[in-house]
Write a structure and sequence with these properties.
- This protein is mainly alpha-helical.
- 71% of the residues lie in helices and 0% in strands.
- The chain has 25 helices and no strands.
- It is elongated and about 85 Å long.
- The termini are far apart.
Length: 462
């Protein structure tokens, strides 16, 4: 894995990467997925620069070349879909202004309207939020519907101008699922797959629509999996779609599980070639279950294909927990230019340095983490613990006071206060014990801390 990641060419790096242990990944599927992610794309910054410099026609030409390649070249399948995912699924105001300017500059461009509709769909999803419908404010639903209607107008116009634009059908499915009902979503699915029967992007949207929570069923997921496998010899990425559909029949993505039967089922699903969302989800699930060995494997496979900075961040934490703090620290440091201003990177560096017994270096990193994220309780509490180990009692006490004032119903500040009272020593441990027992005495995970405080009191601490 580490050797493969030194290869600079994205395609060769991906192809050289080892498959997970005990897996049966089809080589042709892996190769197709490597090509899918390694092919040329455009970023939103590229699009904005072309439009602002008056080169909207050039942008249209580049997108048309991507469409032609997607249709005619087996190694370029999904090229236009990837560009749309990368550049236009963007809910920002900057994107909205840029795409409106593009439509105005080139009103006959199907790509401009498809991109605008895609961005409106992202804005609609952003307005709705991710909570259950019963917990979503009415104003958010009104805003979502308004934006979905704008998306629908632009997407329909794009398809009327050029019915081959597969990203437009995917966005139509998404907005219909959110705002217009299942029948319209299914109609968009059928129209899209009629235009491009082996399109992986459309299958992925269809699989989400087939889930029971969106009005589908297990039978519908199974039917999609069979349909995908029937075409996968010609379109290898559909093996990934079939495995994804199978995984959703047992709630793979929202397992929240830590018992062996469910974890074994996830492992079994990943013995077959799996897409990046499945790999990322499995990495999170295994990490929560304490299986950092598997978490690192699955997150690394996601990095193999997508090479996303946030996956690197997740893996760095997993590596530190697995017992590779030096490697983890290198990974965190490498992410600083790519993810500027993120406190969780400095928190991870501090976490790794504590495991490396580099408390002095960890202090500066944790201070930076807290400066960037005032809600980071772990970094504040850990900084206080280091001060206590270094017998900097005043600094540790100040952090304990702040934590208790800001988060009185979390044990971190009370534990740190007790550390100072026992270690300095400082008066008031009996009062801390009483407050701690009252707030946390019924929590199983705090019984050890409560016994520690009471033992100190029994041996004369006050």
């Amino acid at each position: 894995m580490r050797q493969a990641e030194t290869i600079t060419d994205p395609l060769q790096r991906c192809l050289s990467y080892p498959d997970p242990p005990n897996s049966r990944w089809r080589p042709e599927v892996v190769a197709a997925y490597c090509r899918f992610y390694a092919q040329p794309t455009l970023s939103f910054d590229d699009v904005r620069q072309l439009i602002r410099s008056g080169h909207a026609k050039q942008l249209d030409q580049r997108l048309d070349q991507a469409l032609q390649a997607q249709i005619t070249q087996p190694d370029a399948r999904g090229r236009l879909d990837r560009i749309f995912q990368n550049a236009f699924e963007n809910p920002s105001a900057d994107a909205r202004a840029t795409l409106d300017a593009w439509k105005q500059a080139d009103p006959g461009s199907a790509f401009a309207y498809a991109a605008s509709g895609d961005a409106y769909a992202s804005m609609a999803a952003d307005a709705r939020g991710g909570d259950f419908i019963q917990n979503t404010p009415g104003a958010a639903l009104v805003a979502m519907t308004h934006l979905a209607e704008k998306a629908q107008v632009d997407l329909r116009h794009a398809i009327a101008l050029d019915p081959r634009l597969t990203p437009a059908y995917g966005a139509m499915m998404d907005i219909a699922r959110m705002a217009f009902g299942r029948d319209k979503a299914l109609a968009a699915e059928a129209a899209g797959l009629q235009q491009s029967p082996g399109d992986y992007y459309l299958y992925f949207s269809a699989i989400i629509l087939a889930e029971p929570k969106w009005g589908g069923s297990i039978d519908e997921l199974n039917a999609l999996a069979r349909q995908a496998r029937a075409q996968a010899a010609r379109y290898p990425l559909l093996y990934l779609a079939a495995n994804d559909a199978d995984s959703r029949t047992f709630n793979f993505y929202n397992c929240g599980c830590d018992h062996s039967t469910s974890l074994a089922r996830i492992e079994s699903a990943l013995t077959h070639a799996s897409n990046v969302p499945m790999l990322e989800s499995a990495g999170h699930t295994m990490g929560r279950a304490g299986r950092q060995d598997l978490a690192v494997v699955y997150t690394s496979e996601a990095i193999r294909f997508a090479d996303a900075p946030l996956d690197h961040l997740d893996r760095a934490y997993q590596l530190a927990k697995l017992g590779h703090p030096a490697w983890a620290h290198q990974q965190f440091e490498a992410l600083l230019p790519e993810l500027p201003g993120r406190g969780d990177i400095y928190r991870g560096m501090g976490f790794a340095d504590i495991k490396l017994k580099q408390d002095d270096r960890a202090v500066g990193e944790l201070q930076q983490a807290v400066q960037l994220d005032r809600t980071d309780i772990w970094s504040q509490a850990t900084l206080g613990e280091i001060y206590a180990r270094q017998k900097k009692w005043g600094q540790a006490w100040a952090i304990a006071d702040q934590l208790i004032q800001e988060k009185p119903d979390m044990p971190d500040g009370w534990c740190l206060r007790a550390d100072v009272q026992m270690g300095q020593p400082r008066a008031g441990l009996a009062d801390t014990e009483q407050a701690f027992a009252q707030r946390f005495g019924n929590r199983p995970d705090q019984q050890g801390e409560l016994r520690r405080i009471r033992d100190a009191l029994a041996h004369g601490a006050r």
